[in-house]
Specification:
Two copies of one chain form a homodimer. Chain A contains six helices and two strands; from the N terminus they run H-H-H-H-E-E-H-H. With 149 residues, chain A is mostly helical. In chain A, strands 1-2 form a two-stranded antiparallel sheet. The longest helix of chain A is centred in the first third of the chain and has 24 residues. The radius of gyration of chain A is 19 Å and the shape is globular. Chain B binds a DNA duplex (30 and 30 nucleotides) through helix 4.
Chain lengths: 149, 149
DNA sequence: TGGAACTGGTTACAATTGAAACTACCGAGG
DNA sequence: CCTCGGTAGTTTCAATTGTAACCAGTTCCA
């Protein structure tokens, strides 16, 4: 007869994942907020725009897995602080490009080391090998969720 | 000269962790909500109370890592549906015990297999060994965050 | 024993977030 | 062309969440 697997919340992987992730997010969000006045969503757009020259909001959403409302709001906040600029989209009048301003680039250059330092503090206990493994596992989990929905 | 580590959001572990965790949480939360009308916080209290006979709200908070307001609200919802009952606390008049009612137990018995099935669907691709490794890594991350704050 | 400081839990209000409707625009088919 | 279905992004309104104040009740110590 099959063993009936018993549920224990403490050993329930979705729970463990959530607790660990929230702990990390809270900690890092606090850094962004206190030191730079940015929310996580805003920081993500900044980071992606730093890697991409210019993008339309939909592309930002696809890359960061944020829904379009969140992108819209985060972008509005960044534009309000003149960290990001809007540019006309030549091909499609409904959309527009977003790109870092000089100030946005400067802020990013300041945050990036802080972000890497925070990561190092939290994940420094892991070997490079372990980090790679964790990265791979997290991507596999993501794939499992998004595959069939 | 040292290599200057460059930040790429896609490879940034806190980001990967957050994306994976949110994907899993969203998926599972949807199950609880649609099928049982429970929010994640309520489900957590239910699960812990199923393992513990009776607990005071503060203990529930400590175990589930929820703050006392969330515990209070989730408990109120469960009591409203008569899934959980309040019992007097003999020693301290400010507090009280919470315990599953018969209905709460019955609902839990129904949800537990669904939760395990959801876990199996998302993490079934991992070997037992890998799951143990993931669990350990997540606990190490948690410890790193909570150690020095 | 009688405050003063503290703790557990709840409540009230503000800020954040999410869902649905809306506006402006595009693009295909008649 | 010109309408109709669809898409990009924004706005509005409601629900959720977080923060701060609050009310017992308890503890400590004069």
């Amino acid at each position: 007869m099959a063993v009936k697997p018993k549920l224990r919340l403490d050993a329930f992987l979705p729970y463990r994942l959530s607790v660990a992730s929230n702990a990390v997010s809270d900690r890092i969000a606090e850094t962004y907020r206190r030191r730079f006045g940015l929310k996580v969503a805003e920081w993500r757009l900044l980071a992606i725009l730093a890697e991409h020259e210019r993008l339309i909001p939909a592309a930002l959403g696809a890359i960061t897995r944020m829904d379009k409302i969140s992108v819209s709001r985060a972008a509005a906040a960044l534009i309000g602080r003149e960290l990001v600029a809007r540019e006309q989209h030549p091909g499609d009048g409904r959309s527009h490009y977003l790109a870092l301003s000089a100030g946005g680039r400067a802020l990013y250059d300041e945050i990036a080391p802080a972000a890497l330092a925070a990561e190092a503090e939290l994940f420094g206990q892991f070997t490079l090998e372990e980090r790679r493994l964790l990265d791979t596992m997290l991507r596999r989990i993501e794939a499992a969720v998004t595959s069939d929905d």
